[in-house]
Structures are given as structure tokens and as C-alpha cells.
Amino acid sequence: MARSSGSQDGGTGSRRGRRPVRPDPGSGPVALFAHRLWLLKEQAGDPSFADMAGRLGAAASKSSLAAAARGSALPTWETTWEFVRVLAVDRLGQDEEATRREWRAYWEQAGMGHEPDPPAPDRPSPVRKRTALVAAAIGVAGTGAALFAWAVPLIGESAQREPVPRDTPAQAVTPHDDSVFEADVTIPDGTVVKRGTSFTKIWRLRNAGTVPWRDRYLTRLNDTACRAPERVAIDPVQPGESVEIEVRVRAAAEPGRCKIYWKMTNAEGAELLAGKKPIFLDVTVS
């Protein structure tokens, strides 16, 4: 079993920069999706991305949230949901399941590269006509009978409309790269720690796929009053093997709750195992 460790450092600071440029919704489906995120952000009071990742509790880094709203690339569903959840559900009080379904549909359509299909227009009902000859005899005194015929149109039943086929979005899967969370080796959720003290949190993960893990990290997604490294290196792990990953944490100086999220990334910071939830540390400082 391998073990990875990280040394303590401070939380990352923030710096002022140029105000982000909002994407043009007419430039493509991904830009339109990002535009919808901007509208939601404004509706929720326009908090900063740093506030969303920190004070509001999104399990995504402020850079990931900012990139999602930039519109240059489609964010992962996990980043999208954290963006939407803290604004629509937590701040605006919208129903969680309905919100999840709505935004999942937006996200899938953006990933397919086109807008949602408009409703199929009503087709005119074909009319079948047939003509029947109706003969009538009119008696005329002293001269015999004359026959008249005329056509009577009969309207047939409307033809049944055939169902309109709709595209089914392809599901993005990574069948050969997978992980299983095995245990909180130390500091289980809800542990009470004294203010200002340092402690070591250890998780155990197993490589449940067929891809060796090399040059991978646990990268911190949010900032809290507790101090922890921004990222921790993971030792190489072969498929089927387990690894213990440890991180050194210093408790906050004031009482409160500290919940810190980490996600597996590569050396460039790109998130891996998109279908997996972040792992986290959850302690109470007394």
C-alpha cells in the first residue's frame, strides 16, 4: 500500500483583476450555456466566484467556477451543479431535484453542440375526398323524368402523425479509470478538534480501474478558516492497489465548522474521475 503526504501551507489569496467578459450567447451552445450561468448568478445577487467557493460552500474552486461562466469550454457536470446548487437551491430556494433536471438538460444539450430541439410543428391533416354520385328523379307532369347528379365531398379521418425522432445525448463515460473510497483512516467526519492545533487527516482510496495512477494529486476546492495545502501529491498506484493519502491541517483560531473538499486532478489541475464526488474533511473546532 502506498502513502502520499503533503506539507501545510496557507490558503491561497485573491487578487484584483479585470472584470470577466461575459460570453456572447449567439456564438454557440457552450457560450449560451455560460450566459445562462451568468443570468443565474445575477439573479442570486451576483456573488463573486471566491464567495461561491468559500462562504457559500460550493465544492469547486473559484477558478473552475469562473471558467464555467467564461463560455470557452463546457465545464464538467460536477462543477456545473456546484455552481447552480449554491445559487439556485441554497440562495434562491428553488427545488433541488427540479433544478438538477433542468440544468442537466441544458448541460447535455450544450455538450451535443446544438440548441434544444424546438417542438415539432403541427402537420396539416391530409384530407381524402371521395365523390359519390347521387341520382334523383324529379317527376315532371306530362313530359317524363329528368335525372340530376352532383358530387358530394366526404372528409376522411385525419391521418395519424408519426412520432418525431429525437436525439439521445451520448453519455460521457471513462470505463477504464475509476476509484473507490475505502476509509477515513484518521479524523472521521464530525471529529472535534481544539482551535489552533495541527492534525493529520488520512483517507484510503483504491484504484478500481485499469489505468495506473501517475502524476496525480488531490487538489483543494474551497477555502475555510482551517489551513490546509492547496494540493497533495498521490504516489503511483497500480490497478487494484490502495493508497493512503495524508494531509496536514491546522485548525482555525476561532470555534466553528471546517469542511474542506478535495478532488483528484492531473499535474495541470484538470479534474479527473468526473463522475466521482469530492472527498472531504469535516471537523468542528472548539
From TrEMBL:
Q: Which Pfam families match?
A: N_BRCA1_IG (PF16158)
Write down the Gene3D superfamilies for this protein, in alphabetical order. Immunoglobulins
List the CDD domains hit by this protein, alphabetically.
NBR1_like
Residue ranges, annotated region (Disordered): 1-28
Is Membrane there in the keyword field?
Answer: yes
Keywords from the named record:
Membrane, Transmembrane, Transmembrane helix
Membrane-spanning residues: 132-152
Q: InterPro entries, per this entry?
A: Ig-like_fold, Nbr1_FW
What region holds the Nbr1 FW domain? 186-284
Q: Give GO terms for biological process.
A: carbohydrate metabolic process
Name the PANTHER family on file: OVARIAN CARCINOMA ANTIGEN CA125-RELATED (PTHR20930), PROTEIN ILRUN (PTHR20930:SF0)
Recorded protein name is Transcriptional regulator
Q: What is the lineage of its organism?
A: Bacteria, Bacillati, Actinomycetota, Actinomycetes, Streptosporangiales
